[in-house]
Specification:
five-stranded mixed β-sheet; elongated
């Protein structure tokens, strides 16, 4: 029997082991790149044991975006998009960045070729439109057997603080 704790939740269903004492347990992991700790407890009528191991979780194509926290109407900035090919093979990818109603993205559609193990950073010029609210920038990367979607939200505010326009009083 084997009890498994995975990704902040406990799986309490017993798992049968094969003749070598091994088992394969499918895990549904969130969109995550990093290190996880896998811990297991095994027990029988007269024996028990426990073990743990760190495992590296990484997507075949790691996509990380960096954008400003806020922009004012008329501001210009850049969105940096890091692509890291860990797929085990060379790849061609279509990268699309859409700024929605609040942000203009220059050259928002590009094609990138990355050899296995290569990493690149793409820079997308952004400019804030004359609208105010929460901008949602959508990022989509497509390739053979690769589909990655990301979104970044930030505020677009007026260029100047609110004020009152009026005439000076004459005495």
């Amino acid at each position: 029997m084997l009890l498994l704790t995975a990704v902040r939740r406990r799986i309490n269903a017993p798992v049968a082991l094969d003749a070598k004492g091994s088992a394969t347990i499918p895990l549904q992991l969130p969109d995550f790149n990093g290190t996880l700790r896998l811990a297991a407890v095994a027990f029988g009528e007269q024996h028990y044991g426990a073990g743990e191991r760190e495992i590296i979780v990484q997507a075949p194509l790691v996509v990380e975006a960096s954008a400003p926290r806020a922009m004012a109407s008329g501001d210009s900035a850049e969105l940096a998009l890091d692509l890291d090919n860990l797929s085990g093979a060379d790849g061609s990818y279509e990268v699309m960045v859409d700024g929605g109603d609040y942000i203009d993205v220059a050259n928002g559609k590009r094609n990138v070729k990355l050899a296995d193990g290569d990493r690149t950073t793409l820079s997308f010029p952004l400019s804030a439109r004359q609208k105010f609210g929460i901008a949602k920038v959508q990022i989509a990367v497509r390739g053979k057997d690769v589909k990655v979607d990301r979104s970044i939200e930030f505020a677009v505010r007026p260029a100047y603080r609110a004020g009152r326009i009026g005439q000076a009083l004459k005495w």
